[in-house]
Amino acid sequence: MGLKHKLGLVVAASCVALIACTAARAADPRMPAGSPQASSVSEVIVTADRAGLLERKPSDTVLGLTKPLIETPRSASLVSDTTIQRYGIQTINDFVDVSPGTYTASFYGVPGSLDVRGTLADNYFMGFKLIEDRGTYSTPIGDASQIQIVRGPPWPIYGPGKVGGFLNFIPKSAASESLSAHEGEAEITGGAYGLTVFNAQGGAPLNLGKVSGGLYAYGEISDGGSFYEGVNPFHQLSEASVNLDVGGGWSVFGDGLLFHSTGDVQTPGWNRLTPQLISSQSYVTGQNTTLANTPGVPYLTPNQATPTAPFYPFNFTSVGGGLYDVYFGQTVTAAPLADFQLNSPGAGRTVTLSPRDVFVGASDFSKTFVPIGVVGIEKDLANDSSLKLQVFYNGLDNQRFVSYGFPAWFRANTTELRGDYDFKLGAKDGDAYADTIVGASFRYYRGRDMQSFDDGLIALDRRDLSVGATPTDTICDPFQVGDLGDQIPANCQGWEFDVHSVEYDAGGFVTTDITLWKRLDIVLGGRYDGYYVKSGDTGIFARADVGLEFDQPGPASASKGAASYTVSASYRLERGLMPYVTYASDHALEVQQAGDLMPSQIAGDAWLSQSNLVEGGLKFQLLDNTLVGGIDGYRQQRTALSGLNNVSQATRSTGFEWEARWLATQNLSFTFSGDSQHTEVLGPDTSTVYVPAYAVCHDNLACELDSWGGAFLVFDFAASPLGHPGNYELTTIPHSVISLYANYITDEHGWGRAGVTLGTTYVTKTSGVIVGAITYPAYDLVNASAFYQKGPWELDFNVDNLFDRLYFTPNSDPTYVNVAVIPGVGREWRFTLKRKF
Questions:
Q1: Would you say 54 and 661 are in contact if contact means Cβ atoms under 8 Å apart?
Q2: What angle do CA 365, 278, 100 make, to 5 degrees?
Q3: From its phi and psi, is residue 484 left (phi > 0), alpha (psi between -120 and 50) or beta?
Q4: In the chain, N or C: fewer CB atoms in 10 Å?
């Protein structure tokens, strides 16, 4: 155990002891029993909370009812824009530093969605579910006023969803920034690996006679900054909001966001996995020279990649299809095909691979455009009741190509109309009080999902990362040759799946928050959704005239109704303690990467999934509400799509989580979070997945050199000698993650003020999921940041992974989780200069 590892454990243990001691202080009989709750944040706390750790005012974006997050009977975390700045948070993957249960395996290096409690979470914008983002684009967070991370299913008002968790993005607005005068800010950031970011934001209150409110706008341009060679992200983000009180109890609001990015290319990371590669970065070199491209053409056509097969798309070989060999447990004594053998001069020589050198090629690209909009009107009625109507829109257009042979084109649009009525019964300070919201919603989705991945041409190990991309390990890009339809091209990969999907969801919902005797709180919620779905596939692998029919051409349609509900109870004890328990049962669509459904899912009645959650915990507000947090335990069961054959695979997760935020003094604050979890795949897992050469060859180098030009595939993971016949642990998620951070911010002086933030996150070991998988060691990362502020000027400095630790993050895609791993981002730094106006 290394010194830094030991130090991390000691610090974590010290923090536990510290919290225990402060809890004991909270029980001091000299403290009044009726200490104020977090729903009424004192001026002292506002002054002391200089890192934005505590919720300033109750929000209606979690329950749909106005309730402080600390009093909500669900495990949840708040990340404010101030915390994002002070902690140097850059992407949603960094939330693991401040929120338990959010360690996220890599989806090809693109931080689109979090894993929460071991499974994929959904993204919401102002309480509306966004179209799926499984590594499609890096989810922007620069315009967020706050981000709520809720562990568990969405509440009924927000529509059907799976248990596990979700992120709710609240953008900056005149209301969130509490504008009383014109204000603005501009900043420029420069950092490691060519990072350049410019953003500007500003707002103004409006007072036009009887109409009052405010406007706010945000703009951002970001270029470069990727740790990985050959990855060059660029994005533009703009967001604008308006909030108006138009008199007579009426108010209107709206928020619009536009996001455009290029360069969010996907990478599996490192291929040719061996124990030596992980332990000492010793990489085995060599290339296959059997296959030949057309001179001057920088790629292989499908027919050139499979010269022993008849012709594309019927590129089946004597051992399988494309560049894969079907593995049934056989002993590999020679190259399955000549295409598989690394036969270049010097093949088998080892080099030390840099973590910056990952699987990427010059032809790789990703282009994304995402519009989001919410508009609403609200009427305040008598007796503190209100009526609200909102309209939401989200679009997605993404084109991408990964040079190992994966093109995708997602085009999707969704619109949701939601109306709700919020009313109160009883007196808020009486023995019985109920806050209830009831309403209805209608959501419409139309999408087109074009992909090619099932022709067997993907062989990750074929490329020598020490050399980089070459024509004989690059497959033809259909975008480049103008293949944008469903025809079978003569000289390139075609669109093997072209799914056209339509989804309708009409639902009604109710949630009521009942308070009895000012202590017992019961939250009941339910919704009923009536679905109609329809899908057809016109891709090459579905068309009846081609004859492969890996998916049903359709069109297939179905309709069904489903109920979801949640029941929670909490009790306010003395000294700021609140135990709670929650049970939830939810239904949700089992959608693909573009939010679509395949015809085979509908025909097989596998398009609607059910999930459930049992959770219990204790939330606390101690030391005059300067120490807040909670501990909880949970058990959840849900499904997720898995493998090339899109199996709807059940999983079960159990675990404990803890989180504490402490304003120790006016200047010093701490955050402490962690989890201990176990996620299990409920077998049999019949996914079709790739398996690594090191497992097939039993770490025999000669066998590996005869194999790395191709790939090994198993059609049924449970039946494979490398798979698991029954349940098995999802070891891509660590058993435990612990994070501890400290902030010190000075008082205001004549010279200005300054602050520092220092923290560490410890992650236990992970691995692939096959029998005998290579282990990726435990690690700890230290991050540091500092700022200096004087007048309208501020200078920030951030360093991530201060000690430049080498670590590895497994792939979250079950198809390739065992054949590649991405090295973690090394040390990065950046300076930011800001000026307020």
A1: yes
A2: 75
A3: alpha
A4: N
